[in-house]
Amino acid sequence: MKLTSGYEIENDDSLRQICGPNDSNIPYLEEVTGCRISVRGNRLEFTGSPEERALLSNLLDRLMELSVVSDDISRQDILMELKSLDRSPEEGSSRIITVGTRTIYPKGNRQLEYVRAMEGSQVVFAVGPAGTGKTFLATNWCLGELLSGRKNKIVITRPVVEAGENLGFLPGDLSQKLNPYLKPLYDSMEATLSPNTVKRLEESGQIEIAPLAYMRGRSLNNACVILDEAQNTTVGQMKMFLTRLGENSCAIITGDITQTDLPHNQRSGLVDALERLDGVEGVSFIRFSGRDTVRSRIVQRIISAYEK
């Protein structure tokens, strides 16, 4: 039976953010909850089943909290808050990431498992499709460790393998050559820190960006090390990377084994490691699926179509 409920939003700024420009968020809220919504002054009225109305009410509670610390609320924010409702109440805010003055909450059970794994294991493999937060959470968890003083350095690396296209010669110094490959990692850092702060940490040597080939022969102590796009490592490169870890260091390896750009006759080091290191103490594996996508609903649908 379809019934109507109401939700009062007395703060005009919160109402504006939740509804979006020209009420553009309302159709999206209807899509993700199944309710029919109308805006009457400072009140949202919505019609739906008891389950649909309870979902929307809980989602609006979370969006109200978000509106206090945010300048605007996008469709992606709505989706991420919807995902966060998957957590059981006792999990609540038991695992958060703090980067300076910003606080990041895991969205859904799989992200919560991921944060727990980073807290409890020296080596963490996060495997799954795009848009599940693998790189974003890894980068910001490491920034939190650095800024809190628990680690002295962040080292970010990835294999330089082009995704089916030959980009030719790239001009500039090492940092400029690598920038196109490492832009997703910069985007993740700049979501919580200003570009100037990220640049200052780089200039001080607290954040180091390096191609995977430059990791050979090093020993990394008291550092967080991120290997991104790990599906494009060879078996030898993966072994080399994992054996760089020194005292009080941790490694987070992210990748999507369905998007390998290696030659067809070459085995992915990520696939090999998932099999070889299963059961090794101190190593955790988090496997995301299309259901865990938080980037957007269209990405979630695309991934689901490819997984069939």
Concise synopsis of the structure shown:
This protein folds into two domains: 3-84, K Homology domain, type 1 (Ribosomal Protein S8, Chain: A, domain 1); 97-307, P-loop containing nucleotide triphosphate hydrolases (Rossmann fold).
CATH topology of the largest domain: Rossmann fold
Strand content: 15-25%
Class per helix and strand makeup = alpha/beta
CATH superfamily grouping of the largest domain: P-loop containing nucleotide triphosphate hydrolases
Annotation field: number of helices: 11
What's the mean pLDDT score? 84
Strand order, main sheet: write it out.
8-7-9-10-6-11
CATH class descriptor of the largest domain: Alpha Beta
Q: Largest beta sheet, briefly?
A: 6 strands, parallel
| Contiguous uncertain segments of 5+ residues | 88-94, 163-167
Query: What's the helical proportion of residues?
Result: 40-55%
